[in-house]
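Quick review question:
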């Protein structure tokens, strides 16, 4: 699995959105690798990504098949509605027998900075939930800070002192 975000889109509708998201997520503060993939060529992509972001637009709804997208795990996917209504999106996917995609979380954008910020947070959260911790990559070696230390039992002398102190 590639530690990157895959952005699936149709260039004529969402090329600028894909480029914007790739630029933002690739900034030094996030440093997330983004792979842009034309939705029409998605079937040619055999790679698996930590997060699959589908930019759903009017041209996306005209694709002849959604088979490749149906193979994505729901826990690694997010659909961003751009220029289409949720009802229109649902109707066309049902018509084309792509109901599996309807189970993916949806994000409806608005034309404001707050909405874009929320979208970036959603994508980053999805990506981070699916990144395997480095400890697991090192043959399940335990990091000393994964679990708190075992409590040290109080000695009899200390227990007696505490009890005596409370009585007085």
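Suggested answer, residue by residue:
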């Amino acid at each position: 699995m590639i530690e990157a975000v895959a952005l699936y889109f149709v260039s004529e509708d969402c090329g600028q959105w894909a480029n914007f998201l790739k630029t933002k997520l690739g900034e030094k503060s996030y440093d997330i690798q983004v792979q842009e993939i034309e939705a029409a060529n998605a079937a040619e992509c055999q790679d698996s990504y930590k997060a699959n972001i589908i930019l759903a637009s009017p041209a996306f709804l005209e694709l002849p098949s959604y088979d490749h997208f149906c193979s994505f795990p729901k826990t690694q996917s997010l659909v961003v509605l751009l220029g289409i209504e949720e009802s229109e999106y649902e109707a066309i996917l049902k018509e084309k027998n792509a109901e599996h995609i309807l189970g993916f979380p949806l994000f409806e954008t608005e034309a404001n900075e707050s909405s874009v910020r929320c979208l970036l947070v959603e994508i980053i959260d999805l990506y981070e939930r699916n990144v395997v911790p480095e400890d697991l990559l090192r043959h399940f070696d335990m990091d000393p800070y994964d679990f708190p230390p075992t409590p040290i039992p109080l000695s009899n002398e200390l227990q007696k002192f505490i009890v005596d102190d409370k009585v007085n």
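Why it works: Confidence is low (pLDDT under 50) at residues 135-141. The radius of gyration is 24 Å.
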